[in-house]
Amino acid sequence: MSAEAVRVELGARSYDVVVGPGLIAEAGARISALLPGRNAAIITDSNVAERHLPALRSSLGAVGIESTEIVVPPGEASKSFERLQAVVEAILESRRERNDVVVALGGGVVGDLAGFAAAIARRGMRFVQVPTTLLAQVESTVGGKPGINARQGKTLVGAFLQPALVLADTLTLDTLPEREFRAGYAEMAKVGLIGDRKFFEWLEEKRGEVFSGGAARIRAIAESVRFKAKTVAADEHETGERALLNLGHTFAHALEAACGFDAKRLVHGEAVAIGMVLAHDFSVAEGLAPMADAVRVRAHLKSAGLPVAIGDIPGAAFSADELLRHIAQDKKVQRGRLTFILTNGIGQAFIAEDVPPEKVKAFLEGQVRR
Ligand SMILES: NC(=O)c1ccc[n+]([C@@H]2O[C@H](COP(=O)([O-])OP(=O)(O)OC[C@H]3O[C@@H](n4cnc5c(N)ncnc54)[C@H](O)[C@@H]3O)[C@@H](O)[C@H]2O)c1
Ligand SMILES: [Zn+2]
Questions:
Q1: Which among 10-14, 19-23, 96-100, 334-338 has the top mean pLDDT?
Q2: 274: three-class secondary structure by DSSP
Q3: Residue 336 burial (C-beta neighbours within 10 Å; 0-12, 13-18, 19+)
């Protein structure tokens, strides 16, 4: 099995996302080839440090890259102003120069925090991502939108910053808890559902292999990254087509908010799985998509061990009103109409800009009682 490089085409800020087994061991050589003579500040969380930091440390050390290590507590709470301050100060104290590299070793939390720190420390340092969750490998390495949470809401503070290089070492996924892997899988299936029916059909066939690792896993990740890269390159600042990547996310964010962002009850990828099923069911109810496709989507996500209905969330007792309130607070409301990503069937998602809230409410009334 060999690594596959996906180029994210963004003019002078283009970069490679390399996907494959054993890339941490090659990180030193790859970073020094791209950015010769730089030292590094590695930012990671304690779960990942325990499993993968020694390998990265020795990989960098082997080519003479000096590294300083900054370990943060795992979890969403680390995407805070306080933690950002601590990380930036640690970078400055380590006397890393403006030319040096910030390396994010971890999931999306570490990537978002470290990327934002890299964007502001010394007015901007180079940034390399070594994503260690499936979600981060397929979702947060393409897009260039690191950031933190504010008291007023999630991901409200951040910057646009493209990494210089992304090394998605697929072997790191072997230590990832199964639940986190499934959550990332939902975002991978999303790619097929948005615009690549063949990919979805391939996942239906190869799901077992993707979960067990090996060539199918590498191909699935590379395919997802390629799709996202293509979409983002066409629309870097998120005005048009890129919105399609939000398939299932309006419902998902409402469910996450209704659960008080309690990861014990619902992690993001699980919410996305339910949200995508709802988007398909709603599209069927609106006469836009064939029922058979919605049934297939639900069956596939369920077979991957993901929740597929509101009632699958532990302690779910939400009202349609409450969910609609969260949906309205989400940024996609314009003049009393809601913007949703709906679909004409698997692989045919589209942006619907004028969905009447009453219709969504009526649909949700039927869903919360299931
Ligand atoms: N910037 C973007 O474009 C973008 C896109 C999608 C998501 N995100 C952000 O990503 C975050 C979610 O990312 P996530 O799901 O990776 O969560 P995460 O970073 O919290 O990782 C999930 C858990 O897995 C642990 N972990 C990570 N890698 C591991 C490994 N290889 N082995 C064992 N344990 C490991 C972590 O310590 C953590 O406990 C959210 O904050 C979200 O906002 C950002
Ligand atoms: Zn998502």
A1: 19-23
A2: helix
A3: exposed
Length of the chain: 370
- Is 176's C-beta closer than 6 angstroms to any atom of ligand 1? yes
Question: pLDDT tens digit string along 3-28?
Answer: 999 999 999 999 999 999 999 999 99
Percent of the chain with pLDDT over 90: 85
> What separation in Å is there between the alpha carbon of 55 and the centre of ligand 2?
29
Q: Please indicate whether residue 330 or residue 145 has the higher confidence score (pLDDT).
A: 145
For residue 14 and ligand 1, the question of a CB distance below 6 A is answered with no
Q: Which of 70-74, 150-154, 194-198 has the lowest mean pLDDT?
A: 150-154
249 assigned to active site: yes
Please tell me if the CB atom of residue 110 comes closer than 6 angstroms to any atom of ligand 1: yes
Burial of 127 (0-12, 13-18, 19+ CB in 10 A): buried
3-state SS, the chain, equals CCCEEEEECCHHHCEEEEEECCHHHHHHHHHHHHCCCCCEEEEEEHHHHHHHHHHHHHHHHHCCCCEEEEEECCCHHHCCHHHHHHHHHHHHHCCCCCCCEEEEEECHHHHHHHHHHHHHHHHCCEEEEEECCHHHHHHHCCCCCCEEEECCEEEEEECCCCCCEEEEEHHHHHHCCHHHHHHHHHHHHHHHHHHCHHHHHHHHHHHHHHHHCCHHHHHHHHHHHHHHHHHHHHCCCCCCHHHHHHCCHHHHHHHHHHCCCCCCCCCHHHHHHHHHHHHHHHHHHCCCCCHHHHHHHHHHHHHCCCCCCHHHCCCCCCCHHHHHHHHHHCCCEECCEEEEEEECCCCCEEEEEEECHHHHHHHHHHHHCC
Is 237 a catalytic site residue?
A: no
Dist CA 67 CA 22 (whole Å): 20
Whether the per-residue pLDDT at 77 is higher than 60: the answer is yes
Residue range 147-174: average pLDDT? 94
Helices (H), 128-213: 134-135, 178-195, 197-212
Look at the alpha carbons of 294, 192, 179, 78 in this order and tell me if their dihedral is positive or negative. Answer: negative
Residue 87 identity: V
pTM of the model: 0.95
